[in-house]
Amino acid sequence: MKTIVATAVAGTALLFAMQGPAQFGTDADLGSPETTAMSVPAAHVSSVDVAAMDDVVDQYCVRCHSERRMTGNLSLEDFAVTEAVQQAEVAERVIRKLRADMMPPPGANRPAGDTLVALVETLERTIDEAAASEPRPGERPFQRLNRAEYERAVEDLFGIKIDAGQWLPLDQISASFDNVADVQGFSATLMDAYLNAASEIARQVIGNPDATPVETTYQNEPYESQHAWDRVEGAPYGTRGGISVLHSFPADGKYVVSLGFISGWGERFDDIDISVDGERVALLRYQGASTRLIDFQGRLAYPVSTDSVFVRAGQRRLTAAFIRKQDGPYEDLIRPNDWSLTGTEASYGTTSLPHIMQMTVEGPFDASGVSETDARRGVFSCRPTSAAEARPCAEQIITRLATEAYRRPLEQRDVDGLLYFYDEGAADGGFERGVRSAIEAMLVSPHFVFRFERTPAGVRPGEVFEIADLDLASRLSYFLWGTGPDERLRQVAAEGDLNDPETLERETRRMLEDPRSEALATRFASLWLRLQDLEKVKPDAFWFPNYNAQVARDMRRETELFFHDLVRGDGSLLELLHADYTFLNERLANHYGIEGVVGDDFQRVAYPDDRRQGILGHGSMLVQTSYGNRTSPVLRGKWVMEVLLGTPPPPPPPNVPTLDESTGDEAPAGLVTTADRLRMHRANPTCNSCHQLIDPIGMALDNFDVTGQWRTRENGLPLDTEGEFYDGTEISNPASLAAVLEQRPIPFVRHFTQNLMTYALGRRVDHLDQPAVRAIAQEAAEHDYRMSSFILGVVQSDQFRLKRALATDVDND
Amino acid sequence: MHFITGKHIPRRSFIQGMGAMVGLPMLDAMVPAGRRTGAETQPTRFVAIEEVHGVPGCNKWGASQHLFAPEQVGRDFELKPDNVLASLAEYQDYLTIVSNTDVRMAEAFSPEEIGGDHFRSSAVFLTQSHPKQTQGSDLHVGVSMDQIHAQRFGQETVLPSLQLCIEPTDKGGGCDYNYSCSYTDSISWASADTPLPQVRNPRTVFDMLFGAGGSEAERIARRRSHRSILDWVQGEVAHVKRDLGATDRRRVDRYLDSVREIERRIQLVEAQNTSGEERELPEAPAGVPDSFSEHMKLMFDLQVLAFESDTTRVVSFKTGRDASNRTFPESGSDSGFHPASHHGDREDRIMEFNKISQYRVSMLAHFMERLENTMDGDSSLLDQTVVMWGSPMGDANLHNHRRCPLIFLGRGNGAFQGGMHYKAPDGTPMSNVFVSLMQKLGHTDVTSFGDSTGEFLL
Q1: Angle subtended at Cα A308 by Cα A307 and Cα A309, rounded to the nearest 5 degrees
Q2: Across the interface, do B172 and A221 touch by the CB < 8 Å criterion?
Q3: Contact (CB<8Å) A174/B180
Q4: DSSP secondary structure string, A47-105?
Q5: Contact A600, A570 (CB under 8 A)
Q6: Distance CA B211, CA A293 (A)
Q7: DSSP letter at A658?
Q8: B254–A186 CB contact, under 8 Å
Q9: Residue among A735, A754, A756, A748 at smallest CA distance from A781
Q10: A641: distance to nearest CA of chain B, Å?
Q11: In whole angstroms, how far apart are CA B285 and each of A200, A219, A360?
């Protein structure tokens, strides 16, 4: 039976519209009998006639993928399986779709039996065998420290936390990651940023006895809950709301803290505790405002200031928080969603709690020197007791810091360069000023902000070489720890052993066991799973009054801890799909409706039922794929296809109606479920060709509302989450979705590998790297998909350890 | 003095449009000593503001309702309440509308490019060139007109130009359709392959303009150490360069260009400050405000400060990110920006989108007010400045780039009369208008730009 695909697809849509959801997915006749059994058995096909494979492509693919139709911008007319190596870019696209079992699409003709398996395995084998004959390291320019890496480096060097976003321009994301070298540009703006950051950080570290008063203002976001029972992270127990920050006090001296408020209508009095490192330094009284100063929304920017308060220099936790008055349950029945303050307005006669929206620190006044701080103790490993000792002591300090900052043993010129700045500063303001100047220069140095990798002498153009051990050490530590190598790794590299496979494995395992490997969760997994998009979704406070910034942060933390646990425990990657446990604190457990979790600390929690499974039950995934006022099965389906499987659906063509309006006038939004609206959406054949793949995946997760809470009804109507995965399997909930994904693990496992490699290499992984991706994934499969197997596979790959000298690399210009 | 600071009552009052805060005498003290004298003509400042997603008035029905282009052409046009520019009615004498021009370089040139408009358009706006589809460093589009202007007329000021933006650029995954996010996020291009980063944090902008540090003594000290660090960095780079491959060496050369640019800036500041006179600065703003309007207004205030102190004369400002789902509750619509732009030609939904667009454009009124109330010499900054606002998209519902919105505000020292609506003949490239604009800005030798086919006389 030779059905033209477009017709088949339209036919499906038609059936779909006529039969309605109840019948759909019950093995209705959607085409020839051949098309209903679409699952590709995982059997290995050993010997095949390669030429016969070309016939398969001609017969089943070229109808759509022709020069004329160019479906998916792909023509396979000139494609030959025997030429797979020469046409690897196209071949890899074919492999990806075949492995995902997405092609030929639902409703289209398929060859019988394991023909498709034979085809994809033939393609892979042909390409992989050719790849094995020569190393393919790939190429990329040197990387520079991005915001996250810069912050981490400063914390490791000096023990202070900074927000690099104060200075450095936004990092550009490429292929999901913020460390891709070839999109890291240079500009005067960046140079200016490095200079300003270095000046400020050096002063924060050493302190500045000559500091003149400056003002620094911190803002609270309106989503931060300041409700009667919500404490802000970092604030003392027994408080509610407020704002808590790490502030660098430049000198011992007097500081004034002022607060700005909004809201606080009808609540006349509150006590505010101002504390430094948890110790109260002032107690302020908030007095309800007179109506004269209240704006039309009943909110007020009402300033309250402390007297000047003596604080010692250093980075300290500064908190302003309301003293908690209610111990039991508290509910403001008139304005129950006050704590999020979003989209709400007080009306006459209602009461609401005041919220601290801004905190300004001004000072120092009467600076009286700089007391010892942790940062200073860390820097000043020696103290000169005479003028003669000053320079040798400075040299010792600079050598220690710069060895870590430059991630390698220093040459004499490195030390001399920084000592020049010490001398300049010391002449100006003595020993400490000198050290400060040297630190300032060190933080701008290209040896610090760039990760140069040297081409060894004597390498010929086009030649492949092992990257230097010290450069490999940096690659390794930035991959596993998100920061530079520790002393031991530098030592191993200096001894020249790191490129030895056993040493490399030993060091990798050691580093994975180190707590710093958490960076694989907070950096790699976070970017791969797009956790930064979580904060961009602001659920409508009218519908979701219980969602706030604290819950959002907990959700992000849940996913990070889950992934970190997988790495530390060397668990199976597939846990990400089917884990029956997660990490929760009391607040997030309450949000999910899971009982028995007490306290702010996260703990491992077994799910009480199978509603939630793995990442598909994490709020971080469910919220980032929602709109503020409704769930989006489309975004959720797309996320699964794109982030987990690596087979993103094509973006919609322009001039497609959005979901809301395609309901038409007869079905006003709000009175139907999202599922109903999607069904109408899919009645359109153009939409349906892609949405029949996307929507059922998202629908299987539609029992989770915008904020990731479980629901069984939407807009008062029962939810119907049933649908068919594109391979024909019926899915209706997270568990069945996870099961169908796990049944065919190759796309997920390879895509994870590809992402891990992208992050590790700092470059986009392309078709030439796919043999390596397949090999690593295959090796991992043989080791129960253990995380260490993936990580070691990447670390041991040619791509990670080798480099190729470009033809022009060794010229003598 | 709480000028553009982000705190307490003063800011809130200020944000609510308190004109009385403008033109405080202290600002005079900021003008660097030794700057141009009153006898000379005041320099013309140029601001290019990009709107993403076009405007509802560039759709067929929207055009019939005159939601962008007014019904009347010429001097006596009327901005009806529904017009996206209605909030600028008060400044109609300073307003020049150019309707009906096309940005065809933003269109798809090949099948692979179809649908990728959101990731490509921004790079086209000021370059009027077609971006090469790539994710790598082999970027190629064109030099943007603000940069041509800055490279020629911006060298007298500490910052030849300033690039600002509102939205974060870290959306998960990156950019689609095989386009580098540079095309999506950069409207200013120093060369065909050099996108300039934009600054989003008002505090960072402030430090770029005036230097960081709480006092003039501290700023001087920091400048001095920056100078010697820059000097040393060049030696270090020359040393390390020998061990690098060719690609990396080219990269290092780019880096050195930026090092030298900062050196130039420091020298210029130091030359201007030889009198040692204490400059009193307004207070620096805090970080990025949550609210769109507060953020926009702070960014406009900073531009006024930059012009007033003659720290820069050229600004590009990207006010949105393509395909953003951000909501603007203050606009009266709770739809996301991008979903709203796909209005499906339904009238009620076009009007819903119009609420968002009107709200976004209304931010310009604050800028106008500030420019009008800030005197430089004998005239206001509004008389001396050309603010260009436009979009490389026309009807975002179709992702088309025809009949795109473009307006000019301010008089640019006589370059514009204001109070005019020009309707271009069908098919006129927007770049034709840019040719005339550049001539007005002093590039008398410019006869073509991007895909221009001639001039469009203004």
Answers
A1: 110
A2: no
A3: yes
A4: ---HHHHHHHHHHHTTTTSSTTT-GGG---TT--GGGTTTTHHHHHHHHHHHHTT-SSP
A5: no
A6: 36
A7: P
A8: yes
A9: A748
A10: 13
A11: 17, 11, 11
Reference A315, options A438, A207, A432, A163; nearest CA is: A207
Query: Are B189 and B50 contacting, i.e. CB atoms less than 8 angstroms apart?
Result: no
d(CA B357, CA B352): 9
pTM of the model: 0.89
Say which range, A488-502, A560-574, B11-25, has the weakest mean pLDDT: B11-25
Q: What is the pLDDT of residues A85-115, one digit of tens each?
A: 999 999 999 999 999 999 998 888 999 889 9
Mark yes or no for CB contact A455/B245 under 8 Å. Answer: yes
Phi first, then psi: give them for residue A339, nearest 5 degrees. -70, -20
> Residue A697 and residue A734: Cα distance in Å, rounded?
9
Rounded to whole angstroms, the Cα distance separating B245 from A576 reads 40
Give chain B positions within 8 Å (CB) of A804: none
**DSSP-derived 3-state class of residue B90:** helix
ipTM over 0.90: no
> Got the DSSP string for A396-451?
HHHHHHHHHHHTSPPPHHHHHHHHHHHHHHHHHHHHHHHHHHHHHHHHH-HHHHEE
Q: What is the DSSP string of B307-329?
A: HHTTS-SEEEEE---TT---B-G
Q: How many CB atoms lie within 10 A of CB A455?
A: 21
d(CA A32, CA A42): 23
Q: Does B258 touch chain A (CB under 8 A)?
A: yes
On the question of a cis peptide bond just before residue B32, with omega within 30 degrees of 0, the verdict is no
> Testing the interface with B: which of A414, A536, A630 to mutate, by most B Cβ within 10 A?
A536
For residue A574, the SS3 value is coil
DSSP state of A800: H
- For residue A98 the two structure tokens come to 């075949």
Question: Nearest 5 degrees, angle CA B161-CA A197-CA B267?
Answer: 50
For residue B136, give every residue at least 6 positions away whose Cβ sits within 8 Å of its Cβ, in sequence order, or none: A182, A183, A764, B180
| Alpha carbon B213 to chain centroid, angstroms | 27
Asked if A183 and B232 come within 8 Å (Cβ–Cβ), the reply is: no
Task: Give the span between the Cα atoms of A676 and A721, in whole angstroms.
Answer: 10
Hey, what long-range contacts does B374-378 have (CB within 8 A, 24 or more apart)?
Answer: B374/B22, B374/B23, B374/B304, B374/B307, B374/B308, B375/B23, B376/B42, B376/B307, B376/B308, B377/B38, B377/B42, B378/B38
- CB A547 within 8 Å of CB A343: no
Please judge whether A183 and B247 are an interchain contact, meaning their C-beta atoms are less than 8 angstroms apart: no
Q: Does B457 touch chain A (CB under 8 A)?
A: no
Q: What is the pLDDT of residues B254-268, one digit of tens each?
A: 999 999 999 999 998
* Exposure class string for A772-784: b at 16+ Cβ within 10 A, else e: bbbbbbbebeeee
- Say how many CB pairs under 8 Å bridge A and B: 267
Whole-angstrom Cα distance, residue A195 to residue A202?
A: 11
Distance, in Å, from the CA atom of B127 to the CA atom of B115, rounded to the nearest integer, reads 20
Residues B133 and B123: their CA atoms lie apart, in Å, by: 12
| E-assigned strand segments in B119-193 | 162-165, 189-191
Question: Mean pLDDT score of chain B, rounded to an integer?
Answer: 88
| Mean pLDDT confidence for A619-631 | 93
Alpha-carbon distance of B420 to B397, in angstroms, equals 28
Rg, Å, chain A Cα set: 30
A231: which DSSP letter?
B
- Assigned token pair, A116: 């498709």
Closest CA to A733 of A608, A648, A595, A613: A613
In this structure, what are the phi and psi dihedrals at residue A242, rounded to the nearest 5 degrees?
95, -155
How distant, in Å, are the alpha carbons of A18, B70, B176, B345 from that of B57? 39, 10, 27, 11
Asked whether the beta carbons of B10 and B277 are under 8 A apart, the reply is: no
